[in-house]
Amino acid sequence: MFRRNDSKSLNHEVFWPTILAVIIVSALIVINPDASKKVVGVLFSFFTGQLGTIYLWFVFGCFITTLFITFSKYGKIKLGNRTDKPEFSTFTWLGMIFTANTGAGLCYWAVIEWAYYMESPPYGAASGSWQASEWAAAYGLFHWGFTIWSTYALCAVAMAYLYHVKKKPILKVSEALRVLMGDKVDGWMGKVIDIFFIFALIAGASTSMGLGTPLLAAALNKTFGIAPSMTVNSVIVAIWTILVVVCVGGGLSKGIKWLSNFNIWLAVAIITFILVAGPTWFIINTFTSGVGVLLKNILQMQLWTDSVGKSGFPQGWTIFYWAWYITYAPSMGIYLAKISKGRTVNQLLWGSIGAGTFGSWLFFSVFGNSAMNLQVSGALPVLEQLKELGAPQTIVNIMSAIPGGNIIMPLYVLLAFIGLATAQNSIAYALAAVTTKQIGENDDPARWNVMLWALLLGVIALALMFLGGLKPLQTVCVVCSLPIVAMCIALFRSFFISVNEDFDFKKENEVIIIDDSVYAIDRTRTLDESK
């Protein structure tokens, strides 16, 4: 699928300043790590505390906007020409969506997140109580559910409309803002937008690697007796990088598609085994209760700041989660837009939200509730081990203790490993797309560009691990996320302006057929002009 795009297509004005910025920030963290930790700690508290409400309202607004589009005429606009067919089967497409932004992070938190909530529950519930368990079953579904996936979906729709309907051969956030900024996107302002987007995405990607690497190191220790060390971490990241480089070499239609499908089938196999061999009815019943608590309290959970009680729960969890996810939103938009040619706006919206939510909820209900059952039944003191051993080792002990643990443990390690590799694939692709001048509908970024970003992500993670600067950079992703909020809002506004300029829905004298739906447009425009 990779065509043309030689070295001349590289956007040097975006590529090299971004690399330089990453080097400078990483160097500052490494040279004075103690001072850096203090600075980013203060910034983290300020952004999640004083400015945290912005994230809550933004994500809530994205979900409301998604509902509006669904029930409006915008939802049935086809992303492409009338004769365009989807490039991927529905199963493969949904799998590529789900695996694009889950990876090792989902394998990590699906197993253990409930334990943090049960130990330190929200809304004044007693630690370890049945009320705490109810909140524990619900909050994971909330943090990995439909509200945050609506943010990704909206970014995807805006980028897909630009790319497949407007036929702009450019996959950049700055280009999508041309309707608001005009020719300024061709100058320094557009370059700054793209550079900042890339920098924020790198920071967010480092967070995912920071979660996945110690988890896999602990799993190797449990399975093969290999003690965790910096060398082990380095080998894990190196193998990750090699796998990503090999897979992206095949493009979206080969390498990434194959890796995504393999990841989905492996996850289905593990989940089915646990669901059948494990505490089946406890899993189902606890999931059902969790959904009930979520639906009953969704507005409170979404907008809770605890400004009086000052427990820090919404700041440490919901707001941090939203900030972390938001750093990925534009890149997810680019990736999902690229793989969604021939589908409608509604299909893209609800395919993204549905695949992301269903997959995440399946992980949390099966892995998380199986782990909770170990705590409730007394089979494994999960809360005690979490305090004494830390999350990675506790997760490994949980997976070993569930029924069939000897079989599940190595498969779970493989799932976590492949999961992050799949997510890194989509990130490397998005980074390459933004640093490429033009990409036709049937083209991808130059193969070497995608592979280079995969290598750079691995090298950056390794360097920061060696020098102890990974955690501060993880906090930087929270700081970077606030400007991304403004960027996304501008992106959504640009989409609505473009659609309303292209299609006059108020006219009733002429019609245009888009995906079997009748839309009224201005009779003074031809079909080509409307597009």
Which secondary structure elements does this structure contain, and how are they paired or packed?
Elements: H1 12-31, H2 33-50, H3 52-70, H4 90-100, H5 103-119, H6 130-143, H7 146-165, H8 173-176, H9 178-181, H10 188-224, H11 230-248, H12 252-277, H13 280-303, H14 313-338, H15 345-377, H16 382-389, H17 391-401, H18 405-434, H19 447-467, H20 470-502, E1 510-514, E2 517-521, H21 527-530
Helix pairs in contact: 1-2, 1-10, 2-20, 3-7, 3-14, 4-12, 4-15, 5-6, 5-10, 5-15, 5-18, 6-13, 6-15, 7-14, 7-15, 7-20, 10-11, 10-14, 10-17, 10-18, 10-20, 11-18, 11-19, 12-18, 13-15, 14-18, 14-20, 16-17, 17-18, 18-19
Commentary on this structure:
By secondary structure, the protein is an all-alpha fold. It is built from 21 helices and two strands. It has helices spanning 12-31, 33-50, 52-70, 90-100, 103-119, 130-143, 146-165, 173-176, 178-181, 188-224, 230-248, 252-277, 280-303, 313-338, 345-377, 382-389, 391-401, 405-434, 447-467, 470-502, 527-530; strands at 510-514, 517-521. Strands 1-2 form a two-stranded antiparallel ribbon. Helix 1 (12-31) packs across helix 2 and helix 18 (405-434) crosses helix 19 (447-467). The protein is globular, with a radius of gyration of 23 Å.
